[in-house]
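Need tokens for this chain, all 346 residues.
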Amino acid sequence: EPGHDFSEEQHPVKIERPFYMQKTEVTQRQWKEVMGYNPSFFNNCGDNCPVENVSFEEVKEFIRRLNERENTKRYRLPTEAEWEYACRAGTNTAFNNGGILEGRIGFENDWLNEIAWYYHNSKRGTHPVAQKAPNQWGLYDMHGNVWEWCEDWYAKYPFQERSNSKGPETGWSRIRRGGSWRESPLFCRAGYRSSIRPEMRDSDTGFRLVADVVGEPVLPNVPEAPPKAERGPVCIASKVVLFDLDKADIRPDMVPILDEVVLMAKERDAEIHLSGHTCDLASDEYNIRLSKRRADSVIKYLVDKGVPEKRIYRSYYGEERPREPNTDEEHRSLNRRVEIRIFVNE
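Here are the structure tokens for all 346 residues:
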């Protein structure tokens, strides 16, 4: 599909058991009724706004208390396969209203405007649930507003058919899906996969529940002729350059990586998408400034080598990208990186 990422290999999945999915993301009101407090960063948005700033572990505790309160074991998080199945609602396009990414990917999409709060229209925050159009199964905000936790640990997709499992038994990060108020259309696609550490909280991450079916399920109406997916911008490569601590200078060992990006950009008339990262120890002001300096250093190198600046998109730590913890060497390396993704039209 347009915007297809190298981590999104298509493969058949068998949904083994029926389930109901919550029509909206869990709201601040619902969270407070079960947990007795409101963790949301956007707590002035109102009770009908999605709860956010909750870790995977906190969500699991919410579910445990809800099941205990209603004397059941039905409620849980969706698996990644269940989430995408419900989001698409019988469609196979980038967005569940038949929308696609066309031409330059950018930060605005007319299709997405109808169904989602995202970078272009969110005004840098969450919005009350169910204000945009639902998908064909009556589910709201499956794209945008807040990322939604899934049960699975992150892992590469298999190439063979698999059942609706929860993925590997252990892992480093948990899946979240759907994009959020701070993301561009690329990251809000039905097929886009994101993951973060289960202990992390962010103002763009919430969840919705599923419930196992007891008795005869009421099945949704699958569209008879779902829109045909069209080809469009496809991610053909992903590169990473790691900067020195608190520095934004291009080192000699980065040059071969950046020259490879330049070559692909010129040969394939590619779009370049950059995302800068820093850690969570210093102030937001300092981190945003450092993230921009690093991304801008990469952009300057590419432009000086002949890549048109209008073909380069960027996002930074802070307003557009989530922060990362700085707890170990792996994270310290991740927090010094600028990610570079190369997209071409096919």
